[in-house]
Amino acid sequence: MKQNVKLRRLSELSYKASLTLWNEGFSGYYADMMRTLAQHVKYIGTANIRPEHSVVAVADGEPVGFVLTGLRRDGGRTLAWNGGTAVVPRYRGAGVGTAMMREAIRVYEELGVHAASLEAIMANDAAVALYRRCGYAIRKRVLILAQPKEPAKMPLFPGGADGGRAGSGAYALRRAHPSEAGRLRYYRGDAPWCSQWPNAADAEAALAADGNGETAGFALYKRSFGEDGTPRGVHLLQAGFDPARGDGREAAAFLLAALYGSADAPVRRTADNLPESSLAAKLLIEAGFETAFAQYVMELKVRP
Q: What DSSP state is assigned to residue 49?
């Protein structure tokens, strides 16, 4: 690492300065990561990012890189998440990323973190190699999915609420607080950070209940709206279905159809970080959704 680079904390920067660093650090990235100030502030809050524990590299008085740290407690364990690692173009390849990652891990150890996780785009070989050098191991692969801009001319999910048996009364949709989904035995507490309800403050939950009132499955999702209140998008975070019932496909079709609406509705439909082997991912791909990115979920065991 260049000798004039010092490691500081994000809390020493203003929100405006941290936004400028974020946008410059992610310039030329695989995906469009540019944000407005409002989006940046919201992200720091909803994802449980801790500026006082997030690392910033400073050279000649100017911020040149960062590693954001998310923290939360879960069942007596302290979990950390890398909410973004980036270096501005003129300092890339100079060892800044490695130095920041090692400092972030030192912070985790100091805070008594048990495990740390992150997501890395699979095509980003340099980043994946960096994380591996720092001790992270690949745990699974997940997909970011999106429906093509051209709407389908048929039901998205033939067995769901927009056509088929599941739409004829086999299930009822029940809205719930996301924490209720989190108490289901098949909820994935090891899902990527922002797909877990404690780290998605503006998420909603929907449950599929059968004729006996028993829950067959759940979905965590976010909705976006235009200035006039018109729905603009539905973003799936996580979905799970009771493996003991045997009706997972039907319950999944019902929930996904209920959330995403009719095929020709002018709504942007996406899903974030679904395990590629998951039932929800399979149904979405069958419905014509395309893979925008594939990512590795990587984990570091910091302490027992």
A: B
- Residue 190 gets which letter from DSSP? T
- Percent residues over pLDDT 90 in the chain: 81
Residues 131, 158, single domain; the answer is no
Tokens of 142: 């997940």
Same-domain pairing of 106 and 165: no
| Together in a domain, 160 and 280 | yes
| Assigned token pair, 269 | 């439909």
The Cα 138–Cα 144 span in angstroms is 17
Domain boundary among 84, 110, 141: 141
**Mean pLDDT in residue range 147-161:** 65
Query: What is the percentage of the chain residues whose pLDDT exceeds 70?
Result: 92
The predicted structure's pLDDT at residue 16: 97
* 58 and 129 fall within a common domain: yes
Residue 19 and residue 64 in one domain: yes
Neighbours of 20 (CB within 10 A): 17
b (16+ CB within 10 A) / e for 184-212: beebbeebbbbbbbbbbeebbbbbbbbee
Q: How far apart are CA 193 and CA 117, in angstroms?
A: 8
List the domain range (segments joined by +) for residue 246: 148-288
Instruction: State the greatest distance between any 2 C-alpha atoms of the chain, in Å, as a whole number.
Output: 68
Residue 150 has pLDDT above 80, yes or no: no
Model confidence, pTM: 0.90
